Recover the amino acids of this structure.
């Protein structure tokens, strides 16, 4: 064997192994993506309904006052950031984290002016490394998280606003467009402003028991938590979409690499054969 | 007998969607029996069971918190979780009940933990209750 041939062969082999792994990961992500999308769709009726009822209460009763609806002077800001636990998902985590980091840099001068709620290990590591104040975190969520999994963090985030720990709350997650495109999105969660602004016309007017305020008291925190939950589900779908795309292109790259390596391997082999023949011919000529 | 559509929806999925004759729910202001053509109403619910009458049979569902939205021809129960008797994990509810009772006896009355343990106990009892009546 000519020099280098063995090395090239080894590289082909190892690239092939890598390709097998990335291909498997791609397919797993594709299957999980479908399930995540289904979960996101299944969650929609609940969110829609709550929004509808809250909207109709807000539209039906004039001058509702509730701490969650009231804008205050902003002294401190809360951020809830949804990332994934695992990497190898292309720019999924990097994009959202960069967006958060840049925004916080622009808006705040010192670490006293904001607090973070982080979902996902990647985000947690990122902000820990930068010594940013993390109030609460959730890691190790399953691939199809249930409402109970994130209830505590969602609850805390909403309660913190009610208690006046911060005066606005932003939600950061990757909006799912399709498997190829995920957009890092910022959403102002609290104070809830879009509810009353909607002014949903033509909805049924309800009786409230015991009273409209009382019902609103129960509903508004639930509404906010529901928004967080749907963002979480959408984030999951985005994660698998990003992962699928990243692994798909990794597989494609591996294929290309194998092709070019095979070509140079064959060239080397051919060169070795040619050389051997010419040596034999030269030897035979010298004898004859 | 006239019927109306009952839907029970949780953040994860739609648990129940059928035409029924009557339901009995426990709102925070008291128990309510709802028949078709009820006046439109919204009320939060306690952690309790919901009784559903359909044809000649009766069914119960464990509903954890949430609220009910009533319209003339349709009733929607939105809850954080809701289980039909067959879906309840009795062992888990049993364990949750014990855990909650332990915490209740350990915690002081004024703490948030106490509230949480109390709610957990209510949920567990409700689930056990419903699965017993099956």
């Amino acid at each position: 064997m000519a020099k280098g041939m063995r090395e090239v062969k080894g590289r082909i082999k190892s690239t092939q192994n890598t390709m097998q792994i990335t291909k498997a990961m791609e397919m797993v992500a594709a299957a999980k993506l479908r399930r995540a999308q289904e979960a996101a769709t299944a969650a929609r009726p609940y969110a829609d309904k709550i929004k509808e009822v809250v909207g109709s209460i807000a539209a039906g009763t004039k001058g509702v006052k509730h701490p969650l609806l009231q804008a205050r002077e902003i002294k401190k800001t809360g951020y809830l950031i949804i990332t994934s636990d695992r990497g190898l998902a292309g720019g999924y985590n990097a994009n959202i984290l960069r967006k958060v980091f840049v925004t916080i840099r622009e808006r705040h001068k010192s670490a006293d002016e904001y607090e973070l709620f982080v979902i996902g290990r990647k985000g947690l590591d990122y902000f820990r490394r930068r010594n940013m104040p993390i109030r609460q975190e959730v890691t190790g969520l399953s691939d199809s998280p249930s409402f109970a999994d994130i209830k505590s963090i969602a609850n805390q985030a909403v309660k913190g606003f009610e208690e006046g720990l911060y005066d606005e709350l932003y939600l950061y997650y990757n909006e799912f467009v399709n498997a190829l495109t995920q957009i890092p999105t910022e959403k102002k969660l609290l104070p809830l402003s879009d509810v009353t602004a909607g002014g949903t016309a033509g909805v049924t007017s309800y009786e409230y028991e015991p009273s409209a305020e009382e019902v609103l008291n129960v509903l508004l925190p639930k509404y906010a938590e529901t928004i967080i939950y749907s963002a979480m589900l959408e984030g999951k779908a985005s994660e698998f979409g990003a992962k699928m795309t990243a692994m798909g292109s990794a597989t494609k790259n591996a294929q290309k690499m194998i092709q070019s390596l095979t070509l140079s391997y064959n060239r080397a082999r051919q060169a070795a054969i040619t050389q051997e023949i010419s040596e034999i011919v030269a030897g035979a000529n010298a004898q004859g | 007998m006239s019927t109306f559509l009952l839907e029970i929806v949780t953040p994860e999925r739609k648990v129940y969607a059928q035409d029924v004759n009557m339901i009995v729910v426990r709102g925070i202001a008291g128990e309510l029996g709802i028949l078709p053509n009820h006046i439109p109403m919204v009320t939060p619910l306690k952690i309790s069971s919901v009784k559903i009458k359909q044809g000649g049979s009766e069914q119960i569902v464990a509903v954890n918190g949430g609220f009910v939205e009533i319209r003339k021809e349709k009733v929607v129960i939105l809850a954080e979780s809701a289980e039909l008797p067959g879906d309840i994990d009795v062992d888990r509810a049993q364990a949750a009940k014990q855990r909650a009772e332990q915490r209740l006896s350990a915690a002081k009355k004024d703490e948030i933990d106490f509230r949480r343990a109390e709610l957990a106990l209510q949920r567990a009892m409700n689930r056990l209750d419903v699965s017993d009546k099956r």
